[in-house]
Design brief:
By secondary structure, the chain is α/β, with parallel strands linked by helices. The chain has 2 domains: 150 residues, 3-Layer(aba) Sandwich (Rossmann fold), CATH 3.40.50.2000; 158 residues, Rossmann fold (3-Layer(aba) Sandwich). The chain has a 6-stranded parallel β-sheet, with helices on both faces. Strands 9-8-7-10-11-12 form a 6-stranded parallel β-sheet, sandwiched between helices. Helix 11 links the parallel strand 10 and strand 11. Helix 1 packs across helix 11 and helix 8 packs parallel to helix 13. The mean pLDDT is 96.
Length: 327
Protein backbone atom coordinates (compact mmCIF):
# COMPACT_ATOMS: atom_id res chain seq x y z
CA UNK A 1 0.00 0.00 0.00
CA UNK A 2 1.25 3.50 -0.85
CA UNK A 3 0.03 6.49 1.16
CA UNK A 4 0.47 10.20 0.51
CA UNK A 5 0.06 12.78 3.30
CA UNK A 6 0.09 16.51 2.58
CA UNK A 7 0.49 19.50 4.92
CA UNK A 8 2.06 22.58 3.41
CA UNK A 9 1.12 25.39 5.80
CA UNK A 10 2.71 26.34 9.14
CA UNK A 11 5.25 24.73 11.42
CA UNK A 12 2.92 24.60 14.41
CA UNK A 13 0.14 22.97 12.44
CA UNK A 14 2.50 20.29 11.16
CA UNK A 15 3.65 19.58 14.72
CA UNK A 16 -0.01 19.13 15.66
CA UNK A 17 -0.29 16.68 12.74
CA UNK A 18 2.43 14.35 14.06
CA UNK A 19 0.01 12.19 16.11
CA UNK A 20 -2.13 11.65 12.99
CA UNK A 21 0.99 10.84 10.95
CA UNK A 22 2.12 8.37 13.62
CA UNK A 23 -1.39 6.89 13.66
CA UNK A 24 -1.22 6.27 9.90
CA UNK A 25 2.15 4.57 10.33
CA UNK A 26 0.95 2.40 13.22
CA UNK A 27 -2.32 1.50 11.50
CA UNK A 28 -0.63 0.58 8.20
CA UNK A 29 2.77 -0.74 9.29
CA UNK A 30 3.60 -2.27 5.91
CA UNK A 31 2.69 0.80 3.86
CA UNK A 32 5.09 3.16 2.13
CA UNK A 33 4.24 6.64 3.46
CA UNK A 34 5.22 9.80 1.58
CA UNK A 35 4.85 13.23 3.20
CA UNK A 36 4.50 16.46 1.20
CA UNK A 37 5.56 19.64 3.03
CA UNK A 38 6.39 23.22 2.12
CA UNK A 39 9.94 24.59 2.11
CA UNK A 40 8.97 26.45 5.31
CA UNK A 41 7.62 23.62 7.45
CA UNK A 42 9.74 20.70 6.21
CA UNK A 43 12.05 21.06 9.24
CA UNK A 44 9.37 19.43 11.42
CA UNK A 45 9.64 16.16 9.48
CA UNK A 46 13.40 16.24 9.02
CA UNK A 47 14.06 13.36 11.44
CA UNK A 48 10.62 11.79 11.68
CA UNK A 49 10.73 8.06 10.90
CA UNK A 50 6.95 7.72 10.74
CA UNK A 51 7.27 8.53 7.03
CA UNK A 52 9.43 6.78 4.48
CA UNK A 53 10.15 9.87 2.41
CA UNK A 54 9.46 13.58 2.56
CA UNK A 55 9.08 15.69 -0.57
CA UNK A 56 8.79 19.46 -0.77
CA UNK A 57 6.20 21.34 -2.81
CA UNK A 58 8.25 24.12 -4.45
CA UNK A 59 6.86 27.62 -4.06
CA UNK A 60 6.79 28.18 -7.80
CA UNK A 61 4.89 24.95 -8.65
CA UNK A 62 1.10 24.86 -8.66
CA UNK A 63 -0.30 22.14 -6.37
CA UNK A 64 -2.39 20.55 -9.12
CA UNK A 65 0.64 20.30 -11.39
CA UNK A 66 2.64 18.78 -8.53
CA UNK A 67 -0.15 16.29 -7.82
CA UNK A 68 -0.40 15.42 -11.51
CA UNK A 69 3.20 14.23 -11.31
CA UNK A 70 2.14 11.81 -8.57
CA UNK A 71 -0.93 10.50 -10.38
CA UNK A 72 -1.45 6.77 -10.14
CA UNK A 73 1.33 6.28 -7.58
CA UNK A 74 -0.80 6.13 -4.40
CA UNK A 75 -3.68 4.08 -3.05
CA UNK A 76 -4.59 6.60 -0.35
CA UNK A 77 -3.99 10.36 -0.16
CA UNK A 78 -4.85 12.55 2.84
CA UNK A 79 -4.86 16.36 2.99
CA UNK A 80 -3.95 17.15 6.59
CA UNK A 81 -4.71 20.88 6.13
CA UNK A 82 -8.10 22.39 5.20
CA UNK A 83 -6.51 24.44 2.45
CA UNK A 84 -7.03 24.56 -1.30
CA UNK A 85 -3.33 23.82 -1.84
CA UNK A 86 -3.45 20.48 -0.03
CA UNK A 87 -6.90 19.49 -1.27
CA UNK A 88 -5.95 20.20 -4.89
CA UNK A 89 -2.67 18.32 -4.56
CA UNK A 90 -4.38 15.28 -3.06
CA UNK A 91 -7.15 15.41 -5.67
CA UNK A 92 -4.68 15.50 -8.55
CA UNK A 93 -3.10 12.20 -7.44
CA UNK A 94 -6.35 10.38 -8.37
CA UNK A 95 -5.72 7.93 -5.52
CA UNK A 96 -8.60 5.52 -5.01
CA UNK A 97 -9.24 7.00 -1.55
CA UNK A 98 -8.73 10.72 -1.06
CA UNK A 99 -9.47 12.25 2.33
CA UNK A 100 -9.64 15.86 3.47
CA UNK A 101 -11.52 18.35 5.62
CA UNK A 102 -12.85 21.86 5.59
CA UNK A 103 -14.68 24.20 7.95
CA UNK A 104 -18.41 24.30 8.54
CA UNK A 105 -19.18 27.56 6.79
CA UNK A 106 -16.70 27.35 3.94
CA UNK A 107 -19.57 26.70 1.60
CA UNK A 108 -17.61 26.89 -1.65
CA UNK A 109 -15.01 24.43 -0.36
CA UNK A 110 -17.77 22.03 0.69
CA UNK A 111 -19.55 22.26 -2.66
CA UNK A 112 -16.37 21.76 -4.69
CA UNK A 113 -14.80 19.11 -2.42
CA UNK A 114 -15.94 16.16 -4.63
CA UNK A 115 -13.54 17.46 -7.26
CA UNK A 116 -10.67 16.61 -4.92
CA UNK A 117 -11.68 14.12 -2.23
CA UNK A 118 -14.17 11.30 -1.83
CA UNK A 119 -14.14 11.35 1.98
CA UNK A 120 -14.74 14.79 3.56
CA UNK A 121 -14.78 15.71 7.23
CA UNK A 122 -16.48 18.97 8.23
CA UNK A 123 -14.87 20.74 11.18
CA UNK A 124 -17.00 22.62 13.68
CA UNK A 125 -14.29 25.29 13.99
CA UNK A 126 -15.81 28.65 13.10
CA UNK A 127 -14.75 31.90 14.78
CA UNK A 128 -18.08 33.70 14.49
CA UNK A 129 -20.16 30.76 15.69
CA UNK A 130 -17.81 30.21 18.63
CA UNK A 131 -18.24 33.83 19.72
CA UNK A 132 -22.03 33.77 19.27
CA UNK A 133 -22.47 30.47 21.12
CA UNK A 134 -20.00 30.27 24.05
CA UNK A 135 -21.19 26.76 24.92
CA UNK A 136 -20.09 25.49 21.50
CA UNK A 137 -17.28 22.93 21.87
CA UNK A 138 -14.48 22.82 19.29
CA UNK A 139 -12.22 19.78 19.17
CA UNK A 140 -8.51 20.39 19.50
CA UNK A 141 -6.80 20.28 16.11
CA UNK A 142 -4.91 17.13 17.16
CA UNK A 143 -8.23 15.37 17.82
CA UNK A 144 -9.72 16.62 14.55
CA UNK A 145 -6.76 15.22 12.62
CA UNK A 146 -6.96 11.88 14.40
CA UNK A 147 -10.64 11.73 13.45
CA UNK A 148 -9.69 12.69 9.89
CA UNK A 149 -7.22 9.85 9.38
CA UNK A 150 -9.82 7.59 10.98
CA UNK A 151 -11.94 8.20 7.86
CA UNK A 152 -9.11 6.51 5.96
CA UNK A 153 -9.12 3.48 8.25
CA UNK A 154 -6.27 4.60 10.54
CA UNK A 155 -7.78 3.66 13.89
CA UNK A 156 -4.72 2.62 15.93
CA UNK A 157 -4.32 6.04 17.53
CA UNK A 158 -1.12 7.66 18.71
CA UNK A 159 -1.81 10.79 20.77
CA UNK A 160 1.63 12.27 21.49
CA UNK A 161 3.31 15.08 19.56
CA UNK A 162 6.69 14.33 18.04
CA UNK A 163 9.84 16.37 17.52
CA UNK A 164 13.17 14.59 17.37
CA UNK A 165 15.74 16.46 19.47
CA UNK A 166 19.23 14.97 19.87
CA UNK A 167 21.92 15.31 22.52
CA UNK A 168 23.84 17.47 20.06
CA UNK A 169 20.86 19.85 19.93
CA UNK A 170 20.73 19.95 23.72
CA UNK A 171 24.29 21.22 24.09
CA UNK A 172 23.20 24.80 23.46
CA UNK A 173 20.70 24.57 26.33
CA UNK A 174 23.14 23.22 28.91
CA UNK A 175 24.15 26.72 29.94
CA UNK A 176 20.59 27.30 31.18
CA UNK A 177 19.38 26.33 34.66
CA UNK A 178 16.65 23.72 34.70
CA UNK A 179 14.30 26.14 36.47
CA UNK A 180 14.42 28.90 33.85
CA UNK A 181 11.31 30.57 32.47
CA UNK A 182 11.61 30.63 28.67
CA UNK A 183 9.85 33.65 27.20
CA UNK A 184 9.39 33.45 23.43
CA UNK A 185 9.13 36.72 21.54
CA UNK A 186 6.67 36.84 18.66
CA UNK A 187 5.28 39.96 17.01
CA UNK A 188 1.96 39.61 18.80
CA UNK A 189 3.63 40.81 22.02
CA UNK A 190 3.93 44.22 20.36
CA UNK A 191 0.54 44.68 18.66
CA UNK A 192 -3.22 44.24 19.02
CA UNK A 193 -3.60 44.96 22.72
CA UNK A 194 0.02 44.50 23.82
CA UNK A 195 3.07 46.77 23.66
CA UNK A 196 6.84 46.61 23.87
CA UNK A 197 6.85 48.61 27.11
CA UNK A 198 4.29 46.32 28.74
CA UNK A 199 6.22 43.24 27.59
CA UNK A 200 9.40 44.60 29.16
CA UNK A 201 7.56 45.20 32.43
CA UNK A 202 6.16 41.66 32.30
CA UNK A 203 9.59 40.10 31.76
CA UNK A 204 11.04 42.07 34.68
CA UNK A 205 8.23 40.85 36.90
CA UNK A 206 8.61 37.21 35.83
CA UNK A 207 12.30 37.44 36.76
CA UNK A 208 11.16 37.73 40.37
CA UNK A 209 9.98 34.13 40.11
CA UNK A 210 12.83 32.46 38.19
CA UNK A 211 15.67 33.37 35.81
CA UNK A 212 14.26 34.38 32.42
CA UNK A 213 15.60 33.14 29.08
CA UNK A 214 14.33 34.88 25.96
CA UNK A 215 14.14 33.23 22.56
CA UNK A 216 13.48 35.53 19.64
CA UNK A 217 11.63 34.92 16.40
CA UNK A 218 13.43 36.34 13.39
CA UNK A 219 10.63 38.86 12.83
CA UNK A 220 11.30 40.30 16.29
CA UNK A 221 15.04 40.82 15.93
CA UNK A 222 14.64 44.59 15.35
CA UNK A 223 13.32 44.76 18.93
CA UNK A 224 16.18 42.63 20.27
CA UNK A 225 18.45 45.48 21.49
CA UNK A 226 15.74 46.83 23.81
CA UNK A 227 15.10 43.40 25.25
CA UNK A 228 18.68 42.17 25.51
CA UNK A 229 19.52 45.08 27.80
CA UNK A 230 16.36 44.75 29.91
CA UNK A 231 16.77 44.04 33.58
CA UNK A 232 15.60 40.57 34.48
CA UNK A 233 16.81 38.92 31.27
CA UNK A 234 19.43 36.31 32.14
CA UNK A 235 19.90 34.81 28.65
CA UNK A 236 18.89 36.09 25.22
CA UNK A 237 18.96 33.58 22.36
CA UNK A 238 18.28 34.46 18.73
CA UNK A 239 19.05 32.95 15.34
CA UNK A 240 19.40 29.44 16.74
CA UNK A 241 18.53 26.40 14.59
CA UNK A 242 15.05 24.92 14.97
CA UNK A 243 15.93 21.77 16.91
CA UNK A 244 18.24 23.68 19.25
CA UNK A 245 15.37 26.08 19.90
CA UNK A 246 13.20 23.09 20.82
CA UNK A 247 15.96 21.91 23.18
CA UNK A 248 15.92 25.30 24.91
CA UNK A 249 12.19 24.87 25.47
CA UNK A 250 12.81 21.38 26.81
CA UNK A 251 15.00 22.95 29.51
CA UNK A 252 12.26 25.31 30.71
CA UNK A 253 10.29 25.10 33.91
CA UNK A 254 7.57 27.06 32.08
CA UNK A 255 7.33 28.46 28.55
CA UNK A 256 5.54 31.78 28.00
CA UNK A 257 4.46 32.70 24.48
CA UNK A 258 1.85 34.34 22.33
CA UNK A 259 -0.28 32.20 20.03
CA UNK A 260 2.30 30.97 17.54
CA UNK A 261 4.16 27.80 16.60
CA UNK A 262 6.17 28.13 19.81
CA UNK A 263 3.07 26.92 21.68
CA UNK A 264 3.25 23.58 19.90
CA UNK A 265 7.02 23.24 20.09
CA UNK A 266 6.66 23.61 23.86
CA UNK A 267 3.95 20.93 23.93
CA UNK A 268 6.11 18.57 21.88
CA UNK A 269 8.87 19.12 24.46
CA UNK A 270 6.31 18.32 27.24
CA UNK A 271 6.71 21.68 28.95
CA UNK A 272 4.05 23.57 30.95
CA UNK A 273 3.01 26.63 28.98
CA UNK A 274 1.27 29.97 29.37
CA UNK A 275 -0.19 31.25 26.10
CA UNK A 276 -1.51 34.73 25.38
CA UNK A 277 -4.22 34.41 22.73
CA UNK A 278 -5.61 37.28 20.69
CA UNK A 279 -8.68 38.98 22.12
CA UNK A 280 -10.63 38.40 18.91
CA UNK A 281 -11.79 34.81 18.39
CA UNK A 282 -10.40 33.77 21.77
CA UNK A 283 -13.09 31.12 22.30
CA UNK A 284 -12.21 29.30 19.09
CA UNK A 285 -8.44 29.68 19.13
CA UNK A 286 -8.03 28.74 22.79
CA UNK A 287 -9.85 25.46 22.16
CA UNK A 288 -8.49 24.43 18.78
CA UNK A 289 -4.86 25.50 19.28
CA UNK A 290 -4.30 25.26 23.03
CA UNK A 291 -1.15 23.53 24.32
CA UNK A 292 -1.70 19.80 23.88
CA UNK A 293 -1.08 17.20 26.55
CA UNK A 294 0.74 19.51 28.99
CA UNK A 295 -0.28 21.67 31.97
CA UNK A 296 -1.17 25.12 30.70
CA UNK A 297 -2.81 28.46 31.39
CA UNK A 298 -4.58 30.42 28.66
CA UNK A 299 -4.74 34.21 28.81
CA UNK A 300 -6.77 36.59 26.65
CA UNK A 301 -4.98 39.69 25.37
CA UNK A 302 -6.65 43.02 26.07
CA UNK A 303 -9.00 44.50 23.52
CA UNK A 304 -7.10 47.79 23.77
CA UNK A 305 -3.67 48.68 25.20
CA UNK A 306 -4.78 51.08 27.93
CA UNK A 307 -2.68 50.84 31.07
CA UNK A 308 -5.38 49.27 33.27
CA UNK A 309 -6.00 46.51 30.71
CA UNK A 310 -2.27 45.91 30.24
CA UNK A 311 -1.77 45.68 34.01
CA UNK A 312 -4.49 43.01 34.24
CA UNK A 313 -2.92 41.19 31.30
CA UNK A 314 0.48 41.14 33.04
CA UNK A 315 -1.16 39.95 36.25
CA UNK A 316 -2.90 37.09 34.42
CA UNK A 317 0.35 35.90 32.88
CA UNK A 318 2.37 36.29 36.09
CA UNK A 319 -0.25 34.40 38.10
CA UNK A 320 -0.43 31.69 35.44
CA UNK A 321 3.34 31.17 35.51
CA UNK A 322 3.37 31.12 39.30
CA UNK A 323 0.58 28.53 39.38
CA UNK A 324 2.42 26.25 36.93
CA UNK A 325 5.69 26.58 38.84
CA UNK A 326 4.01 25.56 42.08
CA UNK A 327 1.54 22.99 40.79
Amino acid sequence: MKILLSRTDRIGDLILSTPAIATVRKSFPGAHVTMVTSPYNQIVMQRNTDVDECVVLPREVRPRAFGDGLRGKFDLAIALAPRAVDLQLVGATKAADRVGYTYERRWLARVTSPLYVNHLMVSEADPDLSDRFPERIVRHEVVQLLDLVGLAGAHDRVETLRLDVTDADRRVARILPEDTIVFHLGMRWFQNGSTLESTLALIQRLAQLRPVTITCAQECEPMAPSLERASGVSWFMKSIPFHQWAAVFERAAVVVTVDTGATHVASAMRRPTVVAFEHRYFRLNSQEWAPYGVPHVLVRKPESPDEASLARFRDDIYNGVAALLHR
